[in-house]
């Protein structure tokens, strides 16, 4: 067989689609309709008697009508009257059909008059009307029949409808009307909208497609009972976060299934359908405006750069990779110790960004040889350091592992970044690093102190004094005897934020699993509070911080009011269609080791200054003895690699002055209340600016 010979194409029988059969039918129908319309006009003009039609009128009609038929079919085709989906026909289709009828009728009037003779006035006018009715009527008849069927089902209340969703629609604007038409046309469901809620009094007691607008948000409860509603669709794409939050908070108390139209882009794209609705998520109830970042700045900052993301397979790391991949980097390097996560993000990025120059590398930030190998080979210009152990109870039981991975791993990665000319190093930190009461938080505070010490040495022109940390023997101050020069230009910054909704190990996935299992939902303490943000928000903050970085800063997000975990759990139960403490029990298990009732974003001594983004602040670094700290890091490394848990705790207490054991509940509760007051004060000051 000739290997270069192309295989012959198999002659498969052509298969016509359903819409093509409809198109052929419409072409044949239109050919008959345009002939018939003007014949009827001539026939009516002469008392509906065929024998009464004079030959001087009938002959021009018979000669001209073939020309007119071909012209009509061409005009109809150009105006897409054969490719529209008529069961979804709307004003646009009606407009095109009207234009087609007027244009062809005008041509008919001019052409037959100029080429043959002047016909009776009634022939022109009545012929045009009949043609319009025949052409438009057949196209809209299917949609009309479907609408009437839906109306009859609602009026008769047959068994099929009674067994489907009874929907309350919130929002009588453009999005609401599009959604109403989609639901009641029965495209994707056999649900029916029985009433509409809108806060505009001008719309009350009126109807949209035979569905009453029954009132505003204060009437939601009454009409849920009146119409036996079991589903609520919220179509408010252009409302503010606070307005939508207030309405959703009312709706979740009804026990109905809730669905929400995510945003304006569905309305702009005309994609307001049942399938575009999503279940109301817990973040919809947090009531904070989404983070706004300058994407142009971020694009310029990342475009054409070689970028390394450590921990690139984790919740934050993988989202960093997704957003970076879309900003035109020269090369993206994903570095992670867990091969399953690394594989998942690799497959996703290769599918979504086929032109991306991507390298996925397995390795640990603890392994200085592996880290140096990666930096030496790829020379990344920007590093996002997301690799970390983050689970508080686990790290409390394994403090040496927390220090090894978080503090020592950050030190080694940052040292390699300086050694190989990285321009910017961004650490992913946490609010648990503020006045830490657990080893995990203290280890992240150590990470921040590492970056601050490196930054201070660089600004003093003494970068060469920073000692390398190797748990194995290596010659010289770096790999193969390399030394860090004094003129290092690496900028080190940290980004601090709170809990991330939906991340691995966060409370929301845990609560969902417990609810699915029938409960109980376990909350550590009824008064425990946390700051929350979404993964995309956290990543956008990290990217924006990279733009603002000048070295040594700790960037902090204004995350709004902290949320009670107990309230979060109860809202999630309600959104799942259950009643807290009735259908699903909430159980309080007590604070875990190292856990505190509240989280802080900044230490009292740090203070804050603003950035161009009003939701991002910079904490002023706390002074400490950087030379002593660098020596302490060597001691910490030696202890943690010796796996002496109690000794590592003592060393952490000495090196991190703000680290203290978790307080009793009453003291922590008082601090939580003080933190709430402080947050409100900061917000008021920010609003005044």
Short description:
This protein is α/β, with parallel strands linked by helices and 689 residues long. The chain folds into three domains: 18-154, no CATH class; 162-280, 3-Layer(aba) Sandwich (Rossmann fold), CATH 3.40.50; 295-500 and 532-559 and 601-660, NAD(P)-binding Rossmann-like Domain (Rossmann fold).
Walk me through this protein's architecture.
By secondary structure, the chain is of the alpha/beta class. It has three domains: 137 residues, no CATH class; 119 residues, Rossmann fold, CATH 3.40.50; 294 residues, NAD(P)-binding Rossmann-like Domain (Rossmann fold, 3-Layer(aba) Sandwich), CATH 3.40.50. 48% of the residues lie in helices and 13% in strands. It contains 22 helices and 22 strands. The strands form five sheets. Strands 10-9-8-11-12-13-18-22-21 form a nine-stranded mixed β-sheet, with helices on both faces. Strands 3-4-2-1-5-6-7 form a seven-stranded mixed β-sheet, sandwiched between helices. Helix 10 packs across helix 18, helix 15 crosses helix 20 and helix 20 runs antiparallel to helix 21. The longest helix is centred in the N-terminal third of the chain and has 36 residues.
């Amino acid at each position: 067989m000739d290997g270069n010979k192309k295989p012959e194409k198999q002659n498969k029988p052509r298969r016509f689609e359903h819409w093509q059969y409809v198109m052929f039918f419409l072409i044949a129908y239109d050919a008959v309709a345009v002939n018939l319309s003007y014949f009827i006009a001539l026939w009516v003009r002469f008392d509906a008697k065929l024998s009464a039609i004079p030959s001087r009128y009938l002959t021009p009609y018979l000669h001209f009508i073939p020309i007119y038929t071909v012209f009509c079919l061409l005009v109809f085709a150009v105006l897409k009257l054969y490719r529209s989906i008529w069961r979804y026909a709307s004003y646009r289709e009606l407009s095109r059909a009207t234009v087609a009828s007027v244009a062809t009728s005008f041509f008919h009037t001019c052409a037959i008059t100029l080429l043959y003779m002047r016909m009776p006035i009634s022939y022109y006018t009545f012929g045009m009307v009949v043609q319009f009715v025949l052409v438009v009527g057949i196209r809209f008849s299917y949609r009309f029949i479907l609408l009437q069927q839906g109306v009859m089902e609602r009026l008769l209340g047959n068994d099929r409808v009674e067994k489907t969703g009874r929907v309350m629609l919130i929002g009588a604007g453009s999005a609401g009307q599009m959604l109403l038409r989609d639901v009641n046309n029965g495209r994707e469901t056999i649900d029916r909208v029985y009433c509409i809620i809108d806060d505009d009094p001008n719309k009350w007691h009126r109807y949209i497609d035979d569905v009453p607008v029954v009132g505003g948000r204060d009437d939601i409860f009454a009409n849920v009972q009146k119409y036996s509603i079991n589903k609520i669709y919220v179509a408010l794409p252009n409302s503010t976060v606070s307005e939508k939050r207030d309405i959703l908070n009312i709706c979740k108390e009804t026990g109905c299934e809730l669905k929400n139209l995510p945003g304006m882009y569905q309305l702009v794209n005309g994609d307001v359908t049942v399938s575009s609705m999503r279940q109301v998520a817990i973040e919809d109830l947090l009531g904070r405006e989404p983070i706004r970042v300058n994407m142009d700045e971020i694009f310029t900052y990342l475009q054409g750069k070689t970028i390394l993301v450590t921990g690139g397979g984790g919740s934050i790391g993988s989202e960093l990779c997704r957003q970076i991949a879309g900003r035109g980097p020269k090369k993206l390097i994903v570095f992670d110790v867990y091969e399953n996560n690394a594989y998942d993000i690799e497959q996703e990025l290769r599918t979504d960004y086929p032109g991306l120059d991507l390298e996925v590398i397995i390795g640990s930030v603890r392994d200085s040889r592996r880290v140096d190998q990666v930096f030496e080979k790829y020379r990344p210009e920007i590093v996002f350091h997301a690799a970390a152990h983050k689970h508080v109870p686990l790290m409390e039981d394994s403090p040496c592992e927390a220090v090894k991975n978080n503090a020592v791993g950050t030190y080694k990665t940052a040292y390699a970044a300086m050694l190989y000319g990285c321009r910017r190093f961004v650490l992913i930190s946490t609010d648990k690093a503020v006045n830490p009461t657990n080893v995990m938080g203290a280890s992240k505070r150590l990470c921040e102190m590492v970056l601050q010490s490196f930054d201070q040495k660089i600004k003093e022109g003494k970068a060469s004094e920073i000692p390398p940390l190797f748990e194995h023997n290596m010659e010289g101050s770096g790999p193969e005897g390399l030394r860090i020069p004094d003129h290092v230009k690496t900028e080190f910054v940290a980004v601090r934020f709170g809990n991330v909704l939906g991340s691995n190990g966060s409370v929301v996935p845990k609560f969902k699993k417990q609810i699915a299992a029938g409960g109980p939902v376990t909350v550590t303490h009824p008064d425990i509070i946390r700051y929350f943000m979404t993964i995309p928000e956290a990543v956008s903050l990290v990217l924006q911080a990279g733009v603002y970085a000048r070295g040594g800063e700790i960037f902090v997000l204004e995350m709004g009011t902290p949320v009670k975990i107990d309230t979060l759990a109860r809202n999630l139960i309600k959104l799942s269609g259950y009643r807290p403490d009735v259908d699903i029990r909430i159980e309080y298990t007590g604070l875990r080791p190292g856990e505190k009732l509240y989280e802080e974003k900044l230490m009292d001594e740090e203070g804050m200054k603003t950035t161009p983004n009003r939701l991002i602040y910079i904490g002023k670094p706390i002074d400490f003895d950087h030379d002593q700290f660098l020596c302490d890091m060597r001691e910490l490394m030696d202890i943690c690699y010796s796996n002496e848990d109690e000794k590592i705790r003592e060393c952490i207490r000495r090196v991190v002055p703000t680290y203290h054991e978790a307080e009793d509940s009453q003291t922590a509760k008082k601090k939580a209340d003080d933190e709430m007051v402080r947050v409100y004060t900061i917000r008021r000051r920010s609003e005044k600016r």
